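Help wanted!
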Amino acid sequence: MNDAAILSVAGLRAKVADEDLHILKGVDLVIRPGEVHAIMGPNGSGKSTLAKVVAGHPAYEATGGSVTFRGEDLLDMEPDERSQAGVFMAFQYPVEIPGVSIANFLRTSLQARLEDDEELDLFDFQELLMERMELLDTDPSFAQRPVNDGFSGGEKKRNEILQMAVLKPSLALMDETDSGLDIDALKIVAQGVNTLRQENPDMSVLLITHYQRILNYIIPDMVHVMFKGRIVESGGPEVAMELEARGYEEYRKAHVA
Amino acid sequence: MSRVVTEPEKPRAAFVTGAVPKAGAVDPDWLRGRRAKAWDIYLDTPLPSTRSEEWRYTDLSRMLPLDALVPADVSLAVPAAANGDGTVPEPVRRAMAQDRHSAGRIVDVDGAIVAVELDESLTRQGVVLKSLRQAARDGDPVVESLLATRAVPASEGKFPALNAALWTDGVFLRVPANVHLDGPIRLSRWVSHSGSATFTRILIVAENHSQVSFVDECLSPDFESPTLVNTAVELFSRAGAQIQYVSLQRMGKGGFYLANQRTLAERDSTLDTLNVALGGSVGRVDLNARLLGPGANSDMLGLYFGDHDQHFDFNTSQDHVAPHAHSDLLYKGALDDSARGVFRGIIRVHEGAQGTDAYQTNRNLILSDRAVATSLPNLEIGADDVRCSHGATVGQLDAESLFYLMSRGLNREQAERLVVLGFLGEVLSRLPLGGVTEKVTRAIEAKLGNVR
Ligand SMILES: Nc1ncnc2c1ncn2[C@@H]1O[C@H](COP(=O)(O)OP(=O)(O)O)[C@@H](O)[C@H]1O
Ligand SMILES: [Mg+2]
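Answered by r_m:
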């Protein structure tokens, strides 16, 4: 445990809530304010599960270990409480909410952060939303579209980052935000993330990715390799380079052995 | 509505033969004759039972104590139009105050028209908006030829017959050829007597290439005993004309809303309907859309949101009589607590109606273990070159959607509200009409509870 950590995951074990399927088998991870950590690993190794357990997805149940966010026990909190405490997850597969506009959704999300007797200033909100859309090079009409409904893969990812930019979390879990983005979109997203980090130097990022590519734009402090529900290697950015070159073969062999 | 109206004891009289001459005392001969014939049909027609396919899920013998209902006692003198606001009940005035611009207004209290207002420029252009009773008395030939004849005649069934015999008043709206209204005509109705039965009719005729929208809002307080509002809606769009008809059923508890609607769309005309059911204890709407000319078009929208033990039953049909017509139905409902929703719809492509385009979709969102939705879409196709589809879904709130919203800081209730509003909102977005969306959204929000 590190008192200065913004996120501290210790010995975390998690299973699928209504099945006897164990996915995380003892994960340790410490992220300090302002740090960027990347998690790489083959499909099915448990990367998304880790992010979802941190965000509070009800489909998973933590069976051991702890998740502490700024000294608070996250596992004890509802997903909305975690969000309001400053945790944000950009979904690998963003969900479609037909009939609810992005603007309405974000307005409701910000309103939910206020006291019951406080009313969100709609003018301030519009201004913030416009400014954030500009930052992400997004057409103003985007905000009037129903959340993710009929969006292309790239639009969905961009919408995640727009939400993040409006909600200004202190910990961003970005689950394969780079997948399905062309290089221009990737640069815009990376610039957006970096702007948020400049605005709030204490903001931390956990970046789940398959590709080294995004790490050229969002430089990680640490890279972790996840394999079969465990973090099997941690190091600097060079780990990502090596993975890109060699793949996961050596971990597979080690695991079989 | 929170106010409960209790009625002092009064003699309970079922619908008796004497009611007919009474209802028709000031009517012209043709109408008195029509009422008498309708009454005979009523007597000869059995009450629909759950043994019939169309009434399987709505048990009238249990839900509606027909014999105990007292027909609304309407003063037989038809009031003069536009007699100030004095007679408009407060809740109706409040609902009216929420409305945006209207081209005309008409107010019905307990089955009697108490106020009529129409933009002067429209009157000059020949638009007629008046008490239906008055129109019949004035000898309007359109009323005589179309009232309870081609659209909702007495022969349609037990309630159309009862209505044709006993209707006390209603709305007559006629828009001359090529006249377009720049805002909707709004009918605000109020029913106040617990245990009463109100029978009204709406007759709208849009002549060639004219355009009109009409919002029919029905309000009441909560009632101690079942209280019937029965309405027959007859809509005629002539060649190239456009009608949009919206029904907002927002009665209080104990309200039993029973509507028979028929739309007759001639060549190249558009006749859209939106039925919104939010209030009352029981709501039953029979809607028959008839596409009578090539190029005719009907969008048929429905939205219902039931909670407690509300019961909503929609029975729709899309009759493609003419070739090359288009109809598209979308009914969406959310059901909470032990509410019940029934949708039964049929597309009938008549022989020779080639090139028909007809769609029908019913979607239900179930918000509680005890809520039930029944969906029975159907097709009957008598032509070969057609495009038709029908679909029905009954689903629950999706856990993934709720998590997504909660992960942005909404609590469970807020997340559920947003999903329900979005789900139902799709219907409203298809018929953007003078403030209806805002009004209905507010009413849904109020039902969802005032949590922010
Ligand atoms: N809700 C679930 N139900 C059943 N199996 C699941 C569920 N979530 C994840 N899994 C399984 O757990 C493993 C890890 O999944 P995931 O965390 O999505 O991996 P990654 O994101 O690294 O590709 C996979 O084998 C996946 O099929
Ligand atoms: Mg994943």
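OP: Thanks! One thing I noticed: The mean pLDDT of chain A is 93.
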